[in-house]
Amino acid sequence: MIISAERLPPQTDLSWLRVLVVDDEAQVVQTLRGMLRDMGVTQSHSARDGFEAADFLRNDEGVIDVLITDWNMPRMDGLELLRDARSGNPDLAVLLVTGRADRDSVLEARELGVRGYLRKPFSAQELRAKLIILTKQFEIARGPRPKAA
Amino acid sequence: MAPFSNRPSRLLIVDDLADNRAVLGRRLQRRGFEVVEAEGGREALALIAAQPFDLILLDLMMPDLNGFEVLRAIRATRSVRELPVIMVTGKAQDEDIVEALAMGANDYVTKPVAFEVALARIEALTARKHADEAHQHAAEELQAVTLQLRDERDFLQNVFEQLDKGIVISEGSRLLVANDRLLNLFGLSVAQCPLGGDLAAIASTTALEESGVTPVRARFIAEVTAWFLQSGADYREMRCPDGRVLELRRQAPANGKHIGILADISAKATASDRLHQSQKMEALGELAGGVAHEFNNLLQVIGGFSRAAFARAEDPQAVRAALEEVMMASGRAADLSREMLTFSRNWVGSGKVIAVNEELPQLERLISFESRGIRVEVSAEPDLRVIMDKTNFTQALLNLAINGRDAMSKGGVLTIAARHRHAEAPILSSVDVANVLPPGDYVEIAVTDQGGGIPKDVLPRIFEPFFTTKTTGKGTGLGLSFVFGVVKQAGGAIDVVSVPGRGSTFTILLPRSGKPVSPELRDADYQGGHETILVVDDEPQVRAVTSTLLEELGYTVVQANGGLQALELFDDDRDRFDLILTDVAMPDMDGFDLAAVLDEIGCQAPVGFMTGCVPDLEHQDDRFTAARTNIIQKPFNLRSLAVFTRDVLQENAA
Predict the structure, then answer these.
(1) Nearest to B561 among A2, A98, A100 (CB)
(2) CATH number of the A13-142 domain
């Protein structure tokens, strides 16, 4: 883990985050949600592919803060999902889980607002670091969040 | 009509009255007709069935079968249906005449028969019959001939299409014939090669690429076509972009028709390649043995002094002395590995701007062949700058000069001439068809000897690694292959023209550079700095070593384990980095892609690339060539990294 860990506030509270985890592998979803639970994130949801996730985001606009999605999925991949979800959820922060990327796909992902990537396999620490960075970006965008009760 | 015109017409006179028959028959016989008589309808039908007749004179009124019944029978019988029939009727039997004509009689005469009238009608009808028969015969003959020709054509077509050679025939540049095999060898469809079309248009790279042919293949086809359309018989072997080896024969145009024959000789070529390959392996074996030995010695030194340092860890002076030995040995190992990479043509070299017109006179001092009776003449136009590793450049020219010298056993003049060449059209090299140089400005360096020339059968192979005509121990067979490799790496091309008995000219073309000549580097020139550098490499150890070296030089270093993390770090603080140093081959995203994305999203910091080796020259990424002034080859040491880092930083500042 090389992201300068010392630059991250050690005690950042992440418990208020509402996260949607999308992956076609049930085990990945389970592991991710487990890591999130351990970080105190209690409001996590999951979807098995882009379609399910898009459906969820359409029906519940604004109830998700962070989308953690696999890039490669059957039916509807991560980028397609984002394209679909962006209009109703302009503030949605995204962590893209990916293996390999090239110039064009990275540029497109950026266009869709992706600023964070997770490379499988990743550790809980890594996930936490990425979430903290995303949270910082949020606060800049929306103003500070009230701490969860 | 010819087969029938001399034959007398055969007439059948059918009448129940013998006198009528005899009178008419005799007169007709005198006019040259052959006459047969029948005294009734039944006899007439029997005769008609048995013998050929040209015409029937048929009496209407007869006791057994009357004329109508006989006529009906004739017209109903397939074989004689067309037989002309003249009815002989009594006067004023108009209704009978009408009925007979309706039933198919061709004409009629009335009794008493006016002979001249009857004769005129008989002659008219028999003449028409003869004409019809002649016509029919001719038609049948024609049809037979046509069928035969068609069979022969189909047969030949079949043979033509079954041939395992591709055949193309054109009239001028108009395509007349191209068989399936030809299309197949080129990977083209019939639709892409319409017969009657203009070959120059069909095989233009633009047209081919528009129809979905890959650029490399399109260039290949265009090149072959241009060659085909030249006059004079010729023969050559070429390697297709897909690796097949084609043998091309061109016949001297006759009647304005060009004929070309192509054969796939990959199998033959492979067999000779294999033999060649086994020789190569032998040479490689020797080479590898030598290199392994050398490396072992160095490892021995490194291992030994490391152990010494470890054993005397409490004595700083001893440790320092031992580490100096280790550093020297690893430096030598790096040199050795670089030399090997150069031979394997995977060494990028440092892409510095050099002035050919300044390098050549220096080279002249290196090559003095006067003892062999060879005078060297070097000439160069001013202001010829190219981007190329200086060592590679010198070595390449030296290799060509030495080959020239060795070719001139009887002495002579060796000329090395450099000039500016402006190309309006793409430049093709006969040595390497796939390597087409775009139009633009080039520096052309021609090395010409007055030796015996290169035999035609040897010429295609001279750039192959380990190919040599020199006796064992006199040459490695790597000289020209090295020249070929480094010239191509520098974005240029090489070509050769050789005239037996007169000598050879090797011509190198290198893209002309407008940049100022890079300053010479001396050992003491390197310096560090205080900028912040993002080091991107997926291998933790390499990343750590690079970072340590840079920190030693005074830089602040941030590390990223891949392209995506580098992007995140950049996003986190867009103004933080003054330089990004990235590995090229990384699992998540390659270094060139990373640089492209950074550029796209407005990163101002320059990007330097670190690479272990170029994967394969044949499939070399264009981006390597584009980035070659910003690439540093691993392994590097403190000095080369310092110089490289400073260069990239400064180039950006300038």
Answers:
(1) A2
(2) 3.40.50.2300
